[in-house]
Amino acid sequence: MRDVNQFTITEAVQKTFRAEEGTRFKFLLDSFIEHLHDYTRETQLTHDEWITILNFLYDCGKISTPERHEFILLSDVLGFSALVDMINTRGGATEGSNLGPFYLDDAPQMELGADLSGEREGAVVLVHGQVRDTLGNPQPGAIVDTWQADSSGTYPIQEQERGQDKYDLRAKFTADDQGRYYYTTVLPKPYTVPYDGPVGELLRAGDRHAWRAAHLHFIIRAEGMRPITTEVFFENTEYLDNDAVFGVRKSLITAVKPVKKSDSFDYPLERRPDAQLAYDFVLAPEG
Ligand code: BEZ
Ligand code: FE
Questions:
Q1: How many domains does the chain have?
Q2: Does the beta carbon of 73 lie inside 6 Å of ligand 1?
Q3: Does residue 132 sit in the same domain as residue 14?
Q4: Atom 6 of ligand 1: nearest residue by CA position
């Protein structure tokens, strides 16, 4: 390898990894090396720039904890997470979107019709819809796992020191025999992704803001179906066109409509809503 030069080094490095050719691991690794080297040659990277990048990654590692994964945030603001979501969305199924850092897999199971708002400030909104497969078949028993920020743009899990319960504003519902789900809550406000670390510095250096469009998070699961992780956004709200993590898709935006006195619902609700939003989820078969 003595006559290696800036053009032959890529293949030389790839060859040192003797993982079996044809495996997914070898393919991902070879491709990564190739793109990293191409980037370096294309930009004619200087030593200062090289160490700045590595120190930035080091800082991302230093600030990371099990609760704060700065590399996921980096992936989010670079559109890497969104791209993975897009590539993995199945035709005809609801589009995927960010998981974000505030998911808990042990949210309380609640009865359909329950109110999540816990008397919080803000209009009471009915969130309802149906879970179907890509052929239009309702999915009774589907699990609708949801979590959200409050009407000031904060997740209760972020406010535990101020006495908030981390399980507030989150629940798992089981869809009824028609695949329907329904519950009431308050609408979340936009909020910023954490910008007090290296990723925040990157945003400032690039003259970018840290705001996310207001959204409800969902994971929808049903037997024999590919689960989807997604978000629902609201028409005519801020940051739909410049969400800091590229989570918004046209198909994920819905209208919030006032509930009229004459409106009635053919299912029981713990609280009478002031407004409603409807969103149907579509799951593709597993495999
Ligand atoms: C969120 O939606 O909760 C979120 C997503 C990405 C980064 C930070 C927060
Ligand atoms: Fe969120």
A1: 2
A2: yes
A3: no
A4: 100
Which atom of ligand 1 lies closest to the CA of 102?
3
Q: Is residue 65 part of a domain?
A: no
Range of the domain at 241: 73-283
Residue 136 placed within a domain: yes
Instruction: Please check whether residues 151 and 28 belong to one and the same domain.
Output: no
* Residue 245 beta carbon below 6 angstroms from any ligand 1 atom: yes
Residue 177 neighbours by CB under 8 Å, 6+ apart: 140
Which residue has the least CA distance to atom 2 on ligand 1?
A: 100
Question: Could you tell me which of 184, 208, 213, 172 has the C-alpha nearest to residue 272?
Answer: 184
Q: What is the pLDDT along the chain (287 residues), one digit of tens a residue?
A: 789 999 999 999 999 998 888 999 999 999 999 999 999 999 999 999 999 999 999 999 999 998 889 999 999 999 999 999 999 999 999 999 999 989 999 999 999 999 999 878 889 999 999 999 999 999 999 999 999 999 988 888 888 877 788 888 999 999 999 999 999 999 999 999 999 999 999 999 999 999 999 999 999 999 999 999 999 999 999 999 999 999 999 999 999 999 999 999 989 999 999 999 999 999 999 98
Q: Are residues 86 and 27 in the same domain?
A: no
Judgement on whether residues 89 and 203 belong to the same structural domain of the protein: yes
What is the distance in A from the centroid of ligand 1 to the CA of 73?
8
Instruction: Tell which one of 69, 245, 246 to mutate to probe ligand 1, the residue whose CB is within 8 A of the most ligand atoms.
Output: 245
- Rounded distance, CA 59 to CA 222, Å? 40
Task: Determine the 3-state secondary structure of 65 from DSSP.
Answer: coil
Gap between the Cα atoms of 103 and 112, Å rounded: 20
From the alpha carbon of 73, which atom of ligand 1 is closest? 7
Q: Determine, yes or no, domain membership for 64.
A: no
Comparing C-alpha atoms, which of 144, 129, 82 is closest to residue 255?
A: 129
What pTM did the predictor assign? 0.94
| CATH number (domain holding residue 178) | 2.60.130.10
